[in-house]
Amino acid sequence: MATNTVETPAKNGVEQEQGTIVVSADGAAAQNNLRNIRLILGREYKNRVTQRSFIITSVILLVIVFLAAFIPTVIQLVSSGSSSSGQTSIVVVNEAGSVAGLNEAELTADITTALNGTSTGSSAPYVLSIQPQTSLSTLQSQVKDGKLDMLLVLERPTNQNVRFTYYTTNSSTNDPNLSAIQGLTLQLTFFDTAHRLGLTSSQTQRLAAPPDLVVVQTQPSQTTQPTSESAAGFVLAFAGVILIFISIQVYAGIVATGVAEEKSSRMMEILVNAATPFQLLAGKIVGIGAACLTQMGCLVVVGIGALLLQTPLQAALFGAHAGSFSQYLTGVSIPFYLLFLLYFLLAFFLYATLFAGLASLVKRQEEIQSVIMLPLLLMSSGYVLFFFVVATPDATVTKVLSYIPFWTPMWMLMRLALGTVAWWEIVVTVALMLLTILACTWFAARLYRYGVLMYGQKPSLGHLLKLVRMH
Amino acid sequence: MASLTVDHITKSFGHFQAITDLSMEVQEGTIFGFLGANGAGKTTTMRMILDILRPDRGRVTWNGQDVREVPRRNWGYLPEERGLYPKMRVDEQLLFLARLNGLSKQDAEKELTEWLDRFQISANRKKKIEELSKGNQQKVQFLATILHDPTILVMDEPFSGLDPVNANVLKEAFVEMHRRGKTIIFSTHQLEQAEELCQEIVIINKGQSVVQGSVREVKRKPGRQVARLKLDNDAQAAWLEQLAGVQVTRRREDYIEMQLPAHLNPNVIVEAALQHGGIISRFEIAEPSLTDIFIELVGMSALPDVPSALSA
Prior knowledge:
The complex is a heterodimer of chains A (471) and B (312).
Chain A: H1 27-49, H2 52-68, H3 71-80, E1 88-94, H4 104-116, E2 126-131, H5 136-145, E3 150-155, E4 163-168, H6 178-196, H7 201-208, H8 220-224, H9 227-264, H10 267-274, H11 277-318, H12 326-331, H13 334-359, H14 368-371, H15 373-389, H16 396-401, H17 408-418, H18 423-451, H19 461-469
Parallel strand pairs in A: 1-2, 1-3
Antiparallel strand pairs in A: 3-4
Helix pairs in contact in A: 1-11, 2-11, 9-11, 9-13, 9-15, 9-17, 11-13, 13-17, 13-18
Chain B: E1 3-13, E2 16-27, E3 31-36, H1 42-49, E4 57-62, E5 65-66, E6 75-78, H2 90-100, H3 105-118, H4 134-146, E7 152-156, H5 164-179, E8 183-188, H6 191-197, E9 200-205, E10 208-214, H7 215-220, E11 224-231, E12 247-251, E13 256-261, H8 267-275, E14 280-286, H9 290-298
């Protein structure tokens, strides 16, 4: 019979000072370790994924993710649907006579260019028509009734600048056309004034010449990164950080509940005879982690699939106006997604280990919240601080703080998406996290060993420290 | 003959001395009763036998080998606080535990089918634990202890909470395991059960051994004999109290029980009864029950189910 000493490393009572840890690493024991962990994690995984509440939650989440991918398209559809043709109709009534020395036809051409730029035909955003001043009151009521989008009236008080009156149904704070009208009136007033001052057209041209301004951006990332990509980075950083924050909290919470469940159903009493606390802890965390990763994987696949659907859908709906969502996906390279996965896993193991160790101290499930308060607070503070530093991804303070293992996953993701990260920084943060996970596992296994058979008073902090220090 | 030896173990939790210098020996293949009041240290001792806790001093050995080196599949443990995964199916649960205890999948399936048949719960094989009746849950719990065919069974209060029918099923299972040569250690404070099943017993109180040996030896230990008397015409027999050396321990509808020193001839009671004109319808010399011994040795304060501030 093969002796198996690693099976039973010092499951001591708390106050015992002189017990010995049996350390053995012979092949049979290690094999048994693996066998037991595999059995336990297999049970945990199967138990989790066949649980009705888990399946229902997964389905609900899948539907939410699928529908959420359609939101930008729907918003675009709704906003473009406000004008039937996708074009805004504007009527100009000129009571000012000649403006900037231009005749009616030249003025119409000028206004059209100022509003539409170079686009013509159905792709131009504005449809312009000039109407005689006699119809002014009719036009005003048309704007009021929503039959006409915009009305612009030009008047000229004697020897003064042209006065523009702009009629619209939009509120002043939410008028997408206001800036276009402002630009137009500024331009017309400028040329009109120049004309009245008696400048020649070449003088006017020189006055209107744009300033010679060169913008030099010193941050290399911003010069190399196209704006579409940095916008995508922003979206991904937020989505990633929120996803990590919520899912880690939920998944590590499931681990904590599992530990407390086993304890309150007294299953632990039988299990500790068959397996070591370390095997139980490892099996539980990996098993539940695998189940959660399965759920996460399904969500990601459905989410990406739904996002990819948007491109052809938008092309069909909006034609040339369609924004490309696949840009959001491909704009940030594959390494980002892989690193996201890596940091997600590390964060899960870090927090799940802590949660499991602490949850082993409670008697009933209701008490879990009070014991996991500390790690939860640690994670939340990182999350809250994230919103303060998101504007300065390359600041030194952000860099330094992103090395704190409990915050690394969220902050490094943000830096990866928005700023610059050297490869060695990833290596260092991952190494730091692994070290912390090891330390937490050691700490949690100790708590676990003591906690799983303890049904009495909740230990004090000093008591806990003593327990952890014990050989 | 192989045996499980508990050798002068001591265990304390903080300032609380749970076990003090406890020794006992359980012969292989016997049923061993472990008796004591609540908080006497039964569970702590069992956990040390199973190497879930380690003694501060002393050691526990099986065939001379330290228990921490005995492979886990040799042990079967039925904890006092019963527990199974409530939402897991009976067969999945038992297979999981049997495999965790070292059985191969095929062996586990074979054993499972056999034992479910024996316990007549094959119909519940695919049911969840929470759907079973209390009695059937107890049966499954017992199967969880023995399915991996352990050599030594350690059972903490196996009969607590069982109705007489299920207690009988469990007793039958005990006898069956005994027939198969298993060593069984069980704790109880139902002394009748220990008396019925055990070859050897130990009684502990406050973490210390009070008496141990075969049931017969323990019964003789107090050095007292028990007599039972019934008089048809004098149910109270108040004169018994004045009789030197005789101590009335119990008054029942059908008899009065008394203890008298071993050296006293029981005839004095009969003579006294006749002197008082009693018509004797029953007189017998009985062996003291374990309850008597327990009370005699441990004292009234430590009677089972007397509320105790200490937990086991």
